Amino acid sequence: MDRENQAELLVGDYKLAIERGVETVLWKHHYSRIGTFRSEITAAKKDRNAPALTVAQAAFREFLDDAIFFYVRLVIRLAEAHSLKRVIRIFVMHQALRSFVVC
């Protein structure tokens, strides 16, 4: 099950998602990728390979942007599904999150 399907399960059937450990699976998916980037960046620094370091850092930043967007959307979707208006208001009011649109 990919992360979008896991997120859908969290929003649509939270109890089943918890039984299946979806939150843990999502976290491990992202955390394992962080470990991969950490290894690539460390190796590039050790080898003093500036082009490889630049590529690895750019890829890591792109990954972080994607992960942040995924989790912000997930929180908003959960808040909407459970009528958590205060949570939605916090996200809408926060300047840094105004560009996020729930798809």
Automatic annotation (TrEMBL):
MF-aspect GO terms: telomerase RNA binding; telomeric DNA binding
Gene3D superfamilies found in the cross-reference section: Tetratricopeptide repeat domain (1.25.40.10)
GO annotations of cellular component type: telomerase holoenzyme complex
Stored Pfam families: EST1
Domain Telomerase activating protein Est1-like N-terminal: 22-88
GO biological process: nuclear-transcribed mRNA catabolic process, nonsense-mediated decay
The protein, known as: Telomerase activating protein Est1-like N-terminal domain-containing protein
Organism whose genome encodes this protein: Physocladia obscura
